[in-house]
Amino acid sequence: MSIAPILRPLTLTLLLAVGASSAALAQSGYYQPQAQRDLRAYPPGYYPGKLVQPAQPQQQQGFSLRRFFGVPDEPPPPARTPVARPRKAAPPAAAVAKQEKPKVDPSTFVVVFGDALAGYARQGLEAHLADNQDVAVVPKVRDAGLVRADPADWPNFIKSTLDEGQKTSVAVVMLGTGDRQAIKDGDNSVEPLSDRWKELYRQRVDGIVNTFKERGIPLVWIGLPPMKNSKASEDLVVINEIYKDSVQRGGGTYVDIWPGFVDDENRYTAEGPDVDGEPAKLRTNEGVFFTRAGARKVAFFADTEIKRILGKGGTAVAAPANPADITPADGAPAPSIEAAIPAPPDAAAPVTLPSKPLVGPVLPLTRPDVTPGGTLVSAPPKLTGDNAYMVQRALRVGIAPGSRPGRADDFRWPNN
Q: In angstroms, what is the C-alpha Rg of the chain?
């Protein structure tokens, strides 16, 4: 029996059901029929890559159960009207603008002379004196020491700087980084740190000190710090002694910064406390120059002496072209640099300490029988019973007392 007569009605019924479902979905907007391609609108041999959908009426996209079951949609919610928020009032222009301090022409000038190390001293002094607009730090730094140049090179440079009108309240000098070299003495070359070398080097330091002394300018000479090279540090100790002797003989102030850059054993250290007491790196990697924290520490030592001099009435001195012009017209002697340096404080009176005996009373540590005054008793301690016998045997005869079971000196085996 053929099943074709049975399948035909079923197939027709299925096709009618699918068509009705497609029509219902298309009516609800859930299904959209694919647009037909109209190839007549294009040239021959051209197939468009994109289909142009025909214009359709605006319908709400997506499947809706309300529309599927014939229930009317809910009306859309009313549009929300945006609420205007009050804006913050703009601050006044005077408050926005940064309050700049009025510029003040400085009346005090700290002029720094020297080599590369003096540049770090100048950097530190500028940081220390940044809040005081009445003080200006003027650098006069050169790449020259006292050994290779002519003996009169630095004095002539200082004189020309002052003669050009550079006002100077305090002169700060720091140099000698590369002065561990031979000095030319005529046609001869003098070995560094020999007796003749020290004499020639001292003369060159005296030339700088006397130049400021003749102009009546207070001088602060900063000594050299220790170096990473131990041999260089030993040589700089000798050079610092020359600086100290010459500067103090000339009436200047010598500042020793060596203790600020060594450890507890007086050896070079690259790290240490800064001016605020916090641990910091003070020296650069090559072990010669300073970091920013180290430069401020150098200036910290010199700043104390500078403020002491300025506090005693140190003012800017415009050096005359002729040193003889510093003598007043009334014939009075010229003020010396000693007048700008205060007298040392009076020596404190020695404090009288109570006298004590060299040797105190001998007191036993294991015998409690002593008199109230702390002196030794004349009679030996009284021992009675078995304790007296054991003590006498141990101290006089040398026989140790027997051990007791369970005590640490009980070596019997087995240990019962």
A: 50
DSSP secondary structure code for residue 408 in this structure: T
Burial (0-12, 13-18, 19+ Cβ within 10 Å), 326: middle
Tokens coding 118: 């003096």
Q: Give pLDDT tens digits for 281-322.
A: 999 999 999 999 999 999 999 988 998 888 854 445 554 444
Q: What percent of the chain has pLDDT over 90?
A: 38
Query: Quick one: which H or E segment has residue 170?
Result: strand 170-174
b/e per residue 275-288 (b: at least 16 CB within 10 A):
beeeebebbeeeeb
pLDDT digit string (tens) for 31-80? 455 555 555 655 555 555 544 455 555 555 555 666 666 666 666 666 66
Q: For residue 166, give the nearest of 220, 104, 113, 130 by alpha carbon.
A: 113
CA distance 246 to 243: 5
Q: Provide the β-strand partners of residue 283.
A: 290
> Is residue 258 within 8 Å of 223, Cβ to Cβ?
yes
The 3-state DSSP class for residue 273 equals strand
- Cβ neighbourhood burial of 145 (10 Å; 0-12, 13-18, 19+): buried
327/166 Cα distance (integer angstroms): 20
Higher-pLDDT residue of 266, 380 = 266
